[in-house]
Amino acid sequence: MRIIKYLFLLLLLSLVTLSIFIATQKGAFTVERSRIINSQRAAVFSYANDLKNWEDWNSIAVEDSLMTINYSNTTVGTGGFCSWDGKKGAGELKTINLKENDSIMQTMLLDGNSADLVLSFKDTLGKTKVTYKAKGKMSFTSKVLNVFNGGGSNFFGTIFENSLANLDKRLVYEINTYDVKVNGVVRKLQAFYLSQTFTSEFSKVNKNKNIVFSKINTFCKKNNITVFGKPFVIFHTYDTANELTKISICIPIKEPIFTTEGSEIMSDTLQAFDAVKTTLKGDYTHLSKALKKTSDYLKANNLRTDTKFSRIEIYAVGKNESNNPSKWQTEIYFPTRPKPIYKPAVITPTAIEETVPKPVEEKEMPSEF
Prior knowledge:
There is one protein chain. By secondary structure, the protein is an alpha+beta fold. The protein folds into 2 domains: 25-174, START domain (Alpha-D-Glucose-1,6-Bisphosphate, Chain A, domain 4), CATH 3.30.530; 180-337, Regulatory factor, effector binding domain (Multidrug-efflux Transporter 1 Regulator Bmrr, Chain A, Alpha-Beta Barrel). It has 9 helices and 16 strands.
């Protein structure tokens, strides 16, 4: 009995000692991992900036097929939020700040651990160096589980390494799979719509349209207005020199309505027009290729664009329908002017007579003899 008692006391003492040792270990950690992603920086940033894509590349979600994820209404940019519950515990992620195409700052809670995260993006000759960095504190339970396994640095380091590998693999296919087809001249029918109009930098069009689409959809729900079709953007002007464009971000509606004077959201009618239609299947970063192909088609077919606006983009399949950029579909319409019709001149008999010189009458000359 004494031996059992001593063994029990020794075991108890060992547990107490271990607990004290773990409790006195630093819970704070800093971890950083980097990887070259084989896609352009703007595409990588745009993909990582939407939390709806998080479950497709972050190893926390990828390795847990039974995880349930809840998203806030806003998932792009500052304020984007998601929470989850899975086999390895519960957590939440929130985007608190960002710098366009440069960095994304987030906070994460993961099963009692808290961390400030920074994803940074650096262009490297058409590819992107993505750095994933975290500073945080581990819970006592996590310190127990990881005390003999490198602590928080190793725990989060493994998550980051696997996540960046998943991001590269995902983007190689999703971003680089695309197709551009010029459909030819079509007739675009009349449509009623609600819109907000302003001038935007090229690089901020995507961000602005997502914000305004959400705002107009909310306006429609509050006022029982029926949305009738896919969202679209009218590019009124397109200044490539200064990279500025005047745009109207639009939601089509079933019937015309009247909005109050001075309202941010206005009601208008898009009149029917002829246009060259081009379909881009894939990520929006391939837009320049679609514009180039359309320009070549216009020149080859001797078609002139109308000056009433630059073009219209209709988002037939977008982020709301699919998280996979390879499945997105953007319809682009360039308004055209009708070709001038040259009618052959009609020559009447009278006109012929008028144009043919009359013969000179011969006069009898007096005889010299």
